[in-house]
Write a structure and sequence with these properties.
single chain; about 400 residues; alpha/beta; Arylsulfatase, C-terminal domain; 3-stranded parallel beta sheet; globular
Length: about 400
């Protein structure tokens, strides 16, 4: 989201790596250079936020953030100790907390976001990256909160043991046991109830921010984007949390844009990616998009019936996602995932038009060889085009141009 690049391009495959800002231009850097007041509040997972281009920083996250945990210091001043996650991560790590609702991570993040907005200069534009740490494990909620959910009233999605015969469905570590077979239906219901409570707590804080913008008259001139970095199992396949599989429940996320006078009340059923966020915002702000960005602007799509000069948005015919050793291409009708780990490899191929729950793996099926090979070619071409290696220092003379960030589309 902050670089407009795919994971294998940045080379950042886990939480403790950070972006090399000496060779990349980030979204907050570009907006800051254009005169925006920039702030990161909550969880960033992007390394030192000041180096990324944020002037105002307030963090509520764990050690992987590589920054001071301002929320932890806030609790310490109040004499409150945040509960440590159960190292065994049993029962989906879902439990109640003695931390009062008004001092929860969610309320603190909302308060800090509002504090920044209230202190901004009215004659200068603002970019606020307001990132709520949860819903994310550990899923502890205040023992007394305004958004309780009854575990017994939770409607569980259908599941079967067939899911556990699929390749690549398990994540090494605690989440490998986060399923109904290991912990039972009652524990799964409680975990989902906590998950829903956390979502409502976040919605409440976002409502406070929108109300502030409305009251101050800023909402009419503000672009608001509601999105996430990934999805979660919330009972699908009898699972909870996330893992390294590539099912749609983990990759379909909210992507809601509101820009009064520019966006309508409509849904666009197209394929988009988070790398598209940066070029879209930069175009909307009238700021040049760096050639390092691999996403494409969605401005025509989000403007809908307000589209510029009636020019339609042609969309994407495929999107791509990845984790270490796993690469996936998804079209409107099919999805192919390939994984290589040492001598072992596996594949998954789904006909999403006829099997939206991804229950029947068609990989290796002779009758589907034509679509499997077509998608393998597509995946290979994507990987080669987006790898963007640094070629200086490879025996080439100084007059040879650096081809990193070469874009065939241009």
């Amino acid at each position: 989201m902050l670089t407009g690049q795919y994971t294998h391009t940045t080379g950042i495959m886990h939480n403790t790596r950070t972006v090399d800002v000496s060779s990349l231009t980030t979204l907050p850097q570009k907006l800051k250079a254009a005169g925006y007041q920039t702030a990161a509040v909550g969880k960033t997972h992007a390394g030192p936020s000041v180096e990324m281009g944020f002037d105002h920083v307030r963090i509520a996250a764990g050690p992987a953030a590589q920054e001071a945990n301002d929320y932890k210091e806030y609790l310490e001043k109040l004499g409150i100790e945040e509960p440590e996650p159960d190292q065994a991560m049993k029962a989906f790590d879902a439990y109640t907390s003695a931390i009062p609702y008004e001092h929860s991570r969610e309320v603190w993040t909302g308060n800090e976001g509002l504090r920044f907005l209230e202190g901004t200069k009215q004659d200068e534009p603002v970019f606020l990256w307001l990132c709520f740490d949860r819903p994310h494990a550990p899923s502890f909620v205040p023992s007394v909160n305004p958004f309780p959910y009854d575990p017994d009233a939770i409607a569980l999605p259908p599941w079967s043991e067939h899911f556990y015969t699929k390749p690549g469905t398990r994540r090494p570590g605690c989440e490998a046991s986060w399923n109904v077979l290991q912990n039972g239906e009652a524990a799964l219901r409680q975990a989902i109830a906590n998950y829903y409570t956390l979502i409502s707590m976040i919605d409440d804080q976002i409502g406070r921010v929108l109300a502030h913008l409305q009251t101050t008259g800023q909402l009419a001139n503000t672009i608001v984007i509601f999105t996430s970095d990934h999805g979660e199992f919330a009972g699908e396949f009898g699972q909870f949390g996330k893992n390294t599989s590539t099912f749609d429940v983990l990759y379909r996320i909210p992507f809601i844009w509101n820009w009064p006078g520019h966006t309508g009340r409509e849904q666009t059923h197209e394929l988009v990616e988070l790398i598209d966020l940066m070029p879209t915002l930069l175009e909307a702000a009238g700021v040049e998009t760096p050639r390092t960005v691999q996403g494409q602007s969605l401005l025509n799509a989000i403007q809908g019936s307000f589209g510029r000069c009636g020019v339609p948005w042609d969309g994407k015919d495929a999107v791509f996602f990845e984790t270490p050793f796993v690469k996936t291409v998804r079209t409107r009708t099919h999805k192919l995932s390939l994984c290589f780990k040492g001598k072992d490899h596996w594949g998954q191929l789904y006909d999403l038009a006829n099997d939206p729950r991804e229950e029947r793996n068609l990989y290796g099926n002779p009758a589907q060889a034509w679509i499997e090979n077509k998608l393998k070619d597509r995946l290979l071409c994507w990987f080669i085009e987006t790898q963007q290696p640094q070629i200086h220092g490879c025996g080439l003379d100084e007059t040879t141009p650096n081809l990193r960030w070469y874009q065939s589309r241009t």
